[in-house]
Amino acid sequence: MMLPTPQLMVIHQPRQAAEYSSILEKTGARVHAVTNFEEANELLSFIHPDLIILSANMPEGDGRLYCQQIRATVQHPRPVLVLLHPSTDVNERINAFRYGADDVLQDPIDKNELAIRVLAHLRRRQEEFSHPLTLMPGPNLIRRMLEQLLVSDKAWSAMSIDLNKIRVYNETYGDLAGDQLIKALGAILVDIADDTDFVGHIEADDFLMTTKPEEAELKAERICQQFDKISTRFYPKGDIERGYLISTGRGGIRRRVPLISVAIGIIHSAQRRFQSFVDVLTSARDARYMAKQRLDSAWIVGKPQDDARASKRSLDINATEEHISRILVVEPDGAMACLLQETLALEGYIVEVTSSADDALAMAKYEPHPDLILLESNLSERQMDGWTLCQVLKSDEELSKIWVVMATSHPDQSKALEAGADLYLPKPFDMPNLLSEVSLLLRSRLA
User: Fold this and answer.
1) Given this chain, do its domains 7-128 and 326-446 carry the same CATH topology?
2) pLDDT-based confidence at 179, cuts 50/70/90?
3) Rounded (5°) CA angle 20-23-27
């Protein structure tokens, strides 16, 4: 797996700067040699070196004071400061640490020793910038990698990768179990990456991978397949057989949540000119959000920014100007049915009401179908009850897309979800909570 090329700066008099740069370039780093502090300041304005090697005695000033200046002015993450000091007096060299140097070496120094010490500092810096959970490159190294790709003349692709429904998984099984799942995803990414790929861990379950454009989609598919293959090991057998988790919200509201899956958004450098590493991350995440609309593991190649904005704008127009959501209330209590109808109508919905499951099924089949059915489980024994109606709706390929909110006082809270309901709402319910949940469901279908 590839890592960002280390950036070094050598500040010394011309002959020594050239000698030290020559040996340090053999470590694989990119070395910028300057011969005075003014040149160094200009260079620092547009590069972010990992390490600066500077002489304590420069014609225009004290290198120790320049260490102080860097510490005071360079934003985090600041470079490691290695001061080369000509004195053999231990006290003088110790005093140099008080000015802010991270290491003080004899000047002149054996070139091999310098190279080894620099590599040791870079190794420690890489460890410091690694994510503590997966030990993969963290945000700072990701930024450096993307910045180097942005100025490269090679084509590249970036993949934004995360897990769907990880919050519910953590709530159900605990954060430690969730961490193991995140580590498993990281291991899959490292396994699939080759020597020219980069993989970083931004935070939580958020990963970034860069690769060759011609390999991006194939690797995204392999990530999805491998994760789906191993993810079942992270659930009890009963949850696997049931096929979903149960999320509990405020007021006892329960909803079915799909099992963990992977969402991947892919962007290519050939799509457009990206302005910064933040632009790359944002664009890849936008594509990933589209992939998250799928219930299973999925990847999507993002559109150019203008096309994406046009699609979003078109969707907003359709949602706000053309579509008014339709709700069917199935409620045997006349007073409650009237209250629900008036309240939902005031929210701008088209509302129909019935107390019969048979009538409700017939009304659901009419075109246009309702977007959501608010269903009481306890209906007349002479006809189909609410549980059966829910099962019938969800077993019909065309009607299964209708949201079903089961409102019931039945003590078995999981029965509604097992019947196929998308949401369980215990009675008596809080009307603001009901309106909020209905709005969330309807908005998600439009998105």
Assistant:
1) yes
2) very high
3) 125
